[in-house]
Structures are given as structure tokens and as C-alpha cells.
């Protein structure tokens, strides 16, 4: 009886605490296909959402540095992140093939996204909280790492390139070199750099297909970017991709391309 007398108040206190914390972790819907679990946001699942062909996206791919000021949508962010490291196949034996090739399936890359204030619309006049999020490829979700609009800090760390500060979101790709060098030695460094190039092209093509724009940025202070983003100690920043709605969308046609080739051939170019 004495034991129960001591246990009951403790259980009551625990119950009150759990009840108070429940709203923080209970699933809630935010926009279409978006579920929030505490600091984790389950993104809309990938699907066929674009109308451009592969040929057209390659033709229209171009670095964009000026934005309209509009937010991107959570669906667009979902597809962009899926194109970086999302799952495309259950390959069996406990591993999953991803959207970009990786030497020996070592997958050394980690993906963060820096979201500005009102940078990502989730529908119904609501926006994703400004902050730094880390992409979880297994759950196709993003988890809040740091809260607040950190684009100005990222801009300073990236040599004050204005398209970083004004883009609604910036995708930051980091590498854990040891995952690949542990298998391939020093040559694994080369393989990591090849892989981040594959991912960069995926971002360009997906952004183009979504009527968005991006530009690859490799000029920045590594340590400062790592500090701003809050990366893990063994993660090294390699690339920054500002993404937004282009102020002036790029236009091109295959007819124009054929005319260009015809002119080059007739001029005797070699």
C-alpha cells in the first residue's frame, strides 16, 4: 500500500507531462499532403507532376540568379529534395537505390535546405517555418535543425552573392567523405565529387521541369557555411543551390537549336 501511495503521484505527474507534450508531437495536417510531427515535416510523396520531356529540360536548363519574390510550393520542394537523394527502388538486403548514382552505393552526401521567411507555401495562406532543415531520404521528410531566416548569414558565408540572400530557399549539399574513402581510399574523394555533380544536375533539371530556377554555387567559406547550417562535425559543405521562381523565365525551342546547328555547319566550324 505504501508503495502504491508513492507511485500514484509520480504516475499522475507523468500523465500531466505527456498530455502537455502531446500537441507538440501529435500528427497534424498543414496544407495538401503535408504532415508535421514536432520538428519533422513529412513531405508530399513524389509523383509525376511535370509536363516537360527530358529533352526539353536539358534544352531549357540554365543558371538563374534573379527571382520574382514568390515562394515555391511544398510540392516543388518535395520533388527537388527527392531528386537529390530520394529513394527510387528497394534494392533488397537493407539498402535503397537513390535518385543519383553513387560509387559502391556508399552515398556520402547529406542534404540541408535553408528556408526563408514565407519562402515555402504549404497552401491555405500558410508557410513552412523559416529555418534550416535536414532531409531524411528514408522518410522523405525534413527535420528542423535551426529556426529562423538565416539567408543573410548564408549570404555572408557565400561571398555575398545576392542570389543566395534573395532566393526563397537554398539547398546545401554536404559530404561525409569517409563513407566512400573507407572503401576506395584516396580515390574515393574523386568519386564523392563526381556524385555531387550528378546531384547538382538533377537539381537543375528538376527545377527546370518545375518552372523554377537555380544556380550552382561553389564559392564560399566552408567553415562559415557549416556553422550557419549547423552541419554535423564530419559533414563538409560542397555546393549551395539557391532555388526560386525566375524573374524572367528562360525560353528556347528546338527549332532555334536546329537553326543554330545549321548555321554552324554551313560556316565550316570544326
Would you mind describing this structure in some detail?
- This protein is of the alpha+beta class and 270 residues long.
- It has a single domain, classed as 3-Layer(aba) Sandwich (NADH Oxidase), CATH 3.40.109.
- It is 39% helix and 23% strand.
- It is built from 9 helices and 14 strands.
- The strands form 3 sheets. The protein has a 9-stranded antiparallel beta sheet with strand order 1-2-3-11-10-7-12-14-13, with helices on both faces. It has a 3-stranded mixed beta sheet with strand order 4-8-9.
- Strand 8 and strand 9 form a beta hairpin.
- Helix 2 packs across helix 7 and helix 3 runs antiparallel to helix 7.
- The longest helix is centred in the first third of the chain and has 24 residues.
- The protein starts with a helix and ends with a helix.
- About 4% of the residues have low confidence.
Overview in brief:
The chain is an alpha+beta fold. It is built from nine helices and 14 strands. It has helices spanning 2-25, 54-60, 74-85, 151-157, 162-166, 178-184, 187-209, 222-229, 254-266; strands at residues 28-29, 35-37, 40-42, 72-73, 87-90, 96-98, 109-115, 120-123, 126-127, 131-136, 141-147, 169-175, 213-214, 236-244.
